[in-house]
Amino acid sequence: MHHDNPTVVWLGLTFNLSNVLMLSVTALIVFLIAVISTRKLSVKPTGMQNFMEWVMDFVKGIIKSNMDWKTGGRFHVLGITLIMFIFVANMLGLPFSVIIKGELWWKSPTADPLVAMTLASMVVILTHFYAIQMKGVKEYGKDFLRPLPFLAPLKIIEEFANTLTLGLRLYGNIYAGEILLGLLAGLGLGSAGILGFMGVLVPTLAWQSFSIFIGAIQAFIFVMLTMVYMAHKVSRDH
């Protein structure tokens, strides 16, 4: 079912208040996780510290699978931030949604194409920024002419294609999951009797679990592709 987004116009710009709220909540949750995990560091990690170290090692493995650590180590914090932010963002709209007067306020921010495409665009822009910073403008420009100069237009098209696929893959999977969960929940509320309700509740919970898995996989894929694109830009052996 379609619901309107709460918006406000400020200085001639239209802001989606739902996106602002959900992105703020996501950032706050990630910040709290980071603070709690590193508040009392010990030589023998337990609890949240153990979880954070696992995330750090996991992202380090992603980076090392795409480039040498001397080059990719500087992107470690970026990878950790992305995987935690996107995973939390993917999860927020799964338990429930909040609709007030026909306006959808609580949802996964990554279920909005503007948010997903903004994240993808930011990542692609960063790959170009670091390529210029680490290799210089001259060497960066030469990469578009390799292996053959006449392929340069195709490489430019590839950059736009990478941005689209990175953003739309994330958006499509999360949005589709929320829509199906909403439909299943609606069927459960409209079912007559306890048997009808249970008949809808079981597949709803099953799909909820599957959606959590998909949300985690999408966060992993986003970070993996980010490091793949980064490696192709900053590594001199690509």
From TrEMBL:
The chain crosses the membrane at residues 20-38, 75-94, 114-132, 179-201, 207-231. NCBIfam families: ATP_synt_6_or_A, PRK05815.1-4. The gene is atpB. One of its GO terms (cellular component) is plasma membrane. The keyword Iron does not apply. This is ATP synthase subunit a. The keyword Cytoplasm does not apply. InterPro entries: ATP_syn_F0_a_bact/chloroplast (IPR045082), ATP_synth_F0_asu (IPR000568), ATP_synth_F0_asu_AS (IPR023011), F0_ATP_A_sf (IPR035908). Key component of the proton channel; it plays a direct role in the translocation of protons across the membrane. CDD domains: ATP-synt_Fo_a_6. GO terms for biological process: proton motive force-driven plasma membrane ATP synthesis. It is found in: Cell membrane; Membrane. Pfam families: ATP-synt_A. GO terms for molecular function: proton-transporting ATP synthase activity, rotational mechanism. It comes from the Bacteria. Belongs to the ATPase A chain family. Keywords: ATP synthesis, Cell membrane, CF(0), Hydrogen ion transport, Ion transport, Membrane, Transmembrane, Transmembrane helix, Transport. It is a multi-pass membrane protein.
